[in-house]
Amino acid sequence: MKAIVVSAYGGPDKLELKEIQDPDPGQGEILLAIKSAGINPVDTYHRSGTMGYAPELPFTPGLDGAGIIIECGKGVNNFSPGDRIYCGGSLTGTYAEKAICRENQVHSLPENSSFSSGAALHVPYATAYYALFIRGDAQAGETVLIHGASGAVGIAAVQWALQSGLQVIGTAGSPRGIRLLENFGTHLVVDHTADDYQNQISSFAGTEGIPLVIEMLANVNLQNDMDFLSSFGRVVVVGNRGTTSINPRTLMTKNASIRGMTLLNATEKELQHIHSQIYDSLKKGEIDPIIQNSYPLSEAGTAHREVIESPSCGKIVLDISE
User: Fold this and answer.
1) 148-177: per-residue pLDDT in tens?
2) Which CATH architecture has domain 2-121+290-319?
3) By C-alpha distance, which of 32, 5, 29, 9 is closest to 17?
């Protein structure tokens, strides 16, 4: 089979398309024919071996994917060959024509969802749900500020928040991203490159402030987020690319809190609940992943550059086979 292989840490040029041996599923494992694979920023950290992410070499990247089950190993009870699925994590990596997953990494994909949409589910939608409702304790009627709302996780957070009865402020940095958020019905859309964007948010929030902020770039925005907060407000840090300085007195005067998160820390029970919500909401059409761009497997390096360097307007995927 064809797969992307990383044999040395480094830049996107380290993503090499190779012919490798087909994997075989073991006890409790599932062999998938991958139709589409999702690109996430964390994949670039794996490739470069930085930010604490350094898989053993050589490896095939990829956490997100969607496709069809080819074979089930012994002990697999809830799936069968031919089932349409999306996966959240993989033992062998999803940038490949075939991949091995544990049974608990595989989730049913409704018939009304494409494989590209399936590849855009796990990291964005599970992360957004976990940030909003489990770490952020979001409640219907509250206002939430979602920074970087036109990215894959941001879009997922906007869709979850709107369908759950929250009032949503979303920021974006490109005309395409702004239009996208407006089309969703986001209550306030702000261009975070504008000089007065903070005033726009403060004016909308009023004197009470904002109960919840979902932050995708904490090293840039964290102090401003704290300034926006209401009393007992919460900032949930989903993304960060460096260090920052804050004034803790802002938190003290508001009895506010900053909450970190990574989906890796979600419990099995929490993940089961999240993926049940994803399936039900997909089937009802309440959530719908936006695909920014798709590339063939051979252009994985281009996809890695885009996910870091270009303004985000949805999910980037690799179309592997149809």
Assistant:
1) 999 999 999 999 999 999 999 999 999 999
2) Alpha-Beta Complex (3.90)
3) 5
